[in-house]
Amino acid sequence: MLELLLVEDNEKLRLALKLGLEGTNEVEIKQHCASGEEALALSLASIPDVILMDVQLAGAMNGIEAAVAIRREFPRLPVVFYSIQDDDAYYRSFRRSRILSHYAYVRKSNYLLPQMILPLLQDAVSGRSFIDPEIESRVQEVRHKDEQSPMALLEPNEQAVARMLAQGLTNEQIAARMGFRDKRTISRTNGQIYAAWGLGDTTTDEKVARTRAAIIAREGRLLVWEADGIARVMDERGKWVVWEGFSQT
């Protein structure tokens, strides 16, 4: 029997799913909660066999961000995502997460019955993965949009700051050019740029994030950096490959 952590912020639906899944006699709902933060805490306290997670949740983290945080502690812990939301931000989170195996991502409206969810849970536990073709299409649509210009992810003032970062200007110089009295405004804008480009997920060092943001702004394409510092870019087939501008020498 699978011990499952159920993460759903709609209390009525959460209880209905609990009853339905436990009614299959194949699943035990070990814990259930409404937010990604709670899901992380519960997983740290007692590791489930698999997680069923809504993408839109109460709290600061969405379901994909919560899964990434949990997988930092428990690599490849199986997770099945479901969502009714059709928002670029969620598809962008999924693409950035680089979740490769032990998962499924489906539309809530198509896979809400327990007998449909159960095979997804079992496959995820076995290491097999599935993504709803409609969701995969939207993920690739967002990828192409982002690949065309990382600036499209930024608001106009953030775009202006990013261009000046690429020119090597300091926060004081950028603030002066934009007419701000307080350079801390630029620091906050920098933080939004790092978050939009996924740099906040890969480094806690502001100087490193700033340098990487400047590279992205100059290159005009999104890059990601591995923990060992290797930079990667997504190719036309949707695979992350070593960036041609990266050199280990």
How would you sum up this structure, described in words?
This protein is α/β, with parallel strands linked by helices and 249 residues long. It folds into two domains: 2-143, Response regulator (Rossmann fold), CATH 3.40.50.2300; 149-242, Winged helix-like DNA-binding domain superfamily/Winged helix DNA-binding domain (Arc Repressor Mutant, subunit A, Orthogonal Bundle), CATH 1.10.10. Helices cover 47% and strands 16% of the residues. It is built from ten helices and nine strands. The protein has helices spanning 11-22, 36-45, 63-73, 88-97, 114-125, 133-148, 156-166, 171-178, 184-196, 206-219; strands at 2-7, 27-33, 50-54, 79-83, 103-107, 130-131, 224-225, 231-234, 240-242. A six-stranded parallel sheet has the order 2-1-3-4-5-6, sandwiched between helices. The protein has a three-stranded antiparallel sheet with strand order 7-8-9, with no helix packed on it. α1 (11-22) links the parallel β1 (2-7) and β2. The longest helix has 16 residues, at 133-148.
